[in-house]
ATP phosphoribosyltransferase regulatory subunit (Mesobacillus foraminis), 394 residues
Amino acid sequence: MSRLFMFEKPLGMRDTLPDLYETKHHVRSVLEDEMKRWGFQFIETPTLEYYETVGTASAILDQQLFKLLDQEGHTLVLRPDMTAPIARVAASKLLKEKLPNRLAYSANVFRAQQREGGRPAEFEQVGVECIGDETVSADGEMIALAISSLKKAGLKNFQLSVGHAKFVQELFIEILGNEERARELTRFLYEKNYVGYREHVKGLPLSSIDTQRLLSFLELRGGSEVIGMALELIENGKGKEAVLELQELWDVVQDFEEGSFIKFDLTLVSHMSYYTGILFEVYAGKVGFPIGNGGRYDGLLEKFGKSIGATGFALNLDRLLEALGQLDGNIPAACILFSPERRKEAYQLASERRASGERVVLQDISGVKNLDACTNKFSDVAFLIGKAGKEPAQ
């Protein structure tokens, strides 16, 4: 291994400089406030979790987990997502309450990346989980809250692609006969390799009718008309139930008056294997990857000994900032420049202005090499220079 340079960081890790930090803080606060207004309570979980519990339940590929050993030899992981840790907490401590748990979080998660990938290995998610509500109304609320949160953050050009994990699974098993063949075909959807999907389908030993059904499946993208097309395509009873859930979801979203942000994409599948029903991804015009995703995961809590439905979503804060574009991270601040003999007076003036809610920087004039550069940074500059009374603050 070559010697590291002094200023290098581990692969995928990034520094957050002051302007970006302020911008992230502002957007994060807007998202958190909106989630609180919808009745969600924030929760924190440890950065480190046991591999055998949260690590294996997280649905993140094993090679993407950061692993380490504690002093007793147990394998730990840096949390790779927040849904699995919250499922652990809910199953162990919160499900004694009979009402659904409405939980929210803002936390960094960690996923190891390959050097050529160029993606961050640490990033912040802001999201919610509704645990204990198995209704489509809850799925619709997640979508409506995601839309409302993004609008509050200032994002205008975005869209949610909505699909159903059960529909894809039931259609593929119905035509291909078993789960192994269904998984093989689903892999092309994960990779969004639609050319490869078509070639694979054409090479399968199927009737011309079933081949055409699988090819027509790729056309199930668009508005609410997709629901009718899907019903005509599938014969399986569970598959039809999934489509009818999407119809109900559409009605819920229309009641929230957010239908303009929704497009159906029944080819949508997630790398998060615990999704069992309605799922969605959020796309914005300036970003090549989803800025958020969510859906129903009714089987996840079973891994922690509880059989209960749940749904939720997470927004990737860094990608959201990219979608928002250039934001002003500078917070207006005043500066009091003082000479040593007026230091106490400067301290008292700064204390008074801070008490009124202002941000105030104190600066000894002898420590400033470029006065113009210093004063141009601030919205207001006061001078306390010379003997008191000779040159009042400006």
Summary: The chain is about 40% helix and 20% strand. The domain at 18-324 is CATH 3.30.930.10 (BirA Bifunctional Protein; domain 2). The first helix runs from residue 18 to 37.
